[in-house]
Specification:
About 5% of the residues lie in helices and about 35% in strands. By secondary structure, it is mainly β. The protein has one domain. The longest helix is centred in the middle third of the chain and has 11 residues, at about 85-95.
């Protein structure tokens, strides 16, 4: 646990909009925060057994310098239109494909809306995504630091 509060947690960033298949957002990861999901009225969501339904909120700095937040939730969905996975699964697949073991602040992330699942009774189809990830470059230590 860290004793610092990232600046991105003190500022409000708009939610990434994925309106049409093909919409995408990409940028440098500024912050990663796990939060409990809420419904449209702000009530906390939980599974039937009472376990909180969690999601990752990933703040990206886009190429134009704006910040946007991705709300990455899990789930297992079969595509009915297009292709893809839950956003959380798509990001996990991208991390594995990049040879990384984690999503890190400073890394580059791109997420695209690439499909829809079949609709379940009383629900809209789930949006499905594909992603790409590039781990942050390793920090280097200046050689002259130790030369005194």
């Amino acid at each position: 646990m860290t004793n610092s509060l990232p600046l991105t947690d003190l500022e409000s960033s708009p939610s990434a909009k994925f309106t049409q298949i093909g919409d995408k957002h990409a940028g440098r990861i500024l912050a990663l925060n796990e939060r409990q999901q809420t419904d449209i009225n702000g009530r906390l969501l939980a599974f039937d057994d009472g376990t909180p339904r969690m999601q990752w909120v990933i703040t990206l700095e886009t190429a134009d310098g704006d910040n946007v937040q991705l709300y990455a939730k899990g789930g297992n969905f079969k595509p009915a239109k297009g292709e893809g996975q839950s956003m959380l699964s798509a990001i996990g697949a991208a991390v594995r494909a990049a040879g990384a073991t984690a999503v890190d602040v400073g890394g580059q992330l791109a997420v695209a809306y690439t499909g829809d699942s079949a609709a379940q009774p009383g629900r809209f189809p789930a949006k499905l995504y594909t992603a790409q990830y590039q781990a942050p470059a390793a920090a280097s230590v200046p050689l002259d630091l130790f030369s005194s």
